[in-house]
User: Fold this.
Amino acid sequence: MAIQHAVLALLARGPSHGYELKGAFEAAVGPQWGPLNIGHLYQILDRLSRDGLVVAERQPQPVKPDRVVYEITADGRTELDRWLTAPSPRSGGFRDDFFLKVTAAARSGQATTVRTVLANQRGHLMRELRNLDGLRRQADDPVVRLLLSAAGRHVEADLAFVDDAEAALLADGGATLADLAARSPAAAPGRSPAAGSAGRPKAGSTEDDGPARAAG
Assistant:
């Protein structure tokens, strides 16, 4: 997420100092974002200053330590315009922790594991959706309401994926899961079902032991 561009947008309205920018950012994006770390904000301001997109001026104060006020430059306004007019790609692509969790559960071949993963995620998403809806109803700022609505749309899409995963993996009585488990490296031909995680047979078994051979 390009927070530096959001900072440029705030500075385009006029010069400001760090804590003032922090408050303005949090008020602008609403409660679903969470508080902006002031240390991270100063790192962003330092980077913008090094890149020539803002200039910093130290202003003395009678009692408190000197205050550093930041102002956007002409190059900063050009970069802000470029960012505003460019489309926004997905920041994380399609790499997602839950997708990896579904992948691991599906390839385990265990329907109970898949059901648990999907049920836990569905419950979490439903709670998140209710929380976002409550925040949206309380918001006075129309832009904040819009952002909360957008966040809710993302959660609804995630819920739809949970439904898709349930239909794709559990609707056929376990046939799909069995097929996925059979394709996994641990089930490759020539390996015993009793093999350990490294693919070596357990003590007392041989590579030639078939699944139907009784231990003698």
Notes: Strands lie at 16-17, 54-59, 67-72. The mean pLDDT is 82. The longest strand covers residues 54-59.
